[in-house]
Amino acid sequence: AQYRDLKELKEIQTQVKNCPMLTDKNRAILAKADVFRVKCVVDKSGAVHTFPQDNKFPHFQKFKLFLFDDALLITKTTFEIEPYEPSRREVDNFVNSYALASLRVRNTERENQFILYTPQSVYLFEFATAKEMTEWVDCINTAIQNAPKLFVPNVYVTNDP
User: Fold this and answer.
1) What letter does residue 102 receive in the DSSP assignment?
2) d(CA 112, CA 77)
3) Cβ neighbours of residue 157 under 8 Å, at least 6 residues apart?
């Protein structure tokens, strides 16, 4: 299993543009997810508010999440078009990676969305189905609970809205 994980880590590192070093014999990939980031703002009370749909600025952005046993890697998907080529190519661009102990996850009123609180940002992610989202949240919560603990004040995992 260790060799398989190392091989998969190398593939992810090659796939993600500007990706930091991932290969570590002790690191394992737990899950991957294709999600949409919903544009939102967080007010002083911690409530998340989404923007109305606007044709000039896309409401959703395609992201990928890579969950490891010690970290979460977030990438943003863009599309590149080669000159004289009829098709476009999907490119995963590195956004950030976070130690699991520094993350907090919360469900929203919508059954296929969850909020990810990181030290720098708040992300509102949407899955295609509620089942996918529930499986992902269960997986990341378990990974956070089992991850090496860091001293990070005011970080906790909760499922209440």
Assistant:
1) G
2) 20
3) 104, 105, 141, 144, 145
The model's pLDDT over 74-107, given as tens digits with 9 standing for 90+, comes to 999 988 777 777 777 788 999 999 999 899 998 8
80 three-state secondary structure: strand
Give the span between the Cα atoms of 59 and 64, in whole angstroms.
17
The CA distance from 81 to 89, in Å, is 6
Tokens 């130690």 locate to 99
For 43-63, give the DSSP string: -TTS-EEEPPP-SSS-SEEEE
Q: Look up the pTM and report it.
A: 0.78
Q: Sheet containing 71-81: which strands, arranged edge to edge?
A: 16-17, 88-99, 71-81, 60-68, 29-38, 122-126, 113-117, 104-107
- Residue 109 near residue 33, CB atoms below 8 Å: no
- Residue 5: which H helix or E strand, with range? helix 2-15
CA dihedral 48, 128, 119, 11 (to 10 degrees): -170
**Residue at token pair 């609180």:** 117
For tokens 């909020």, the residue is: 115
Phi/psi of residue 14, nearest 5 degrees? -75, -40
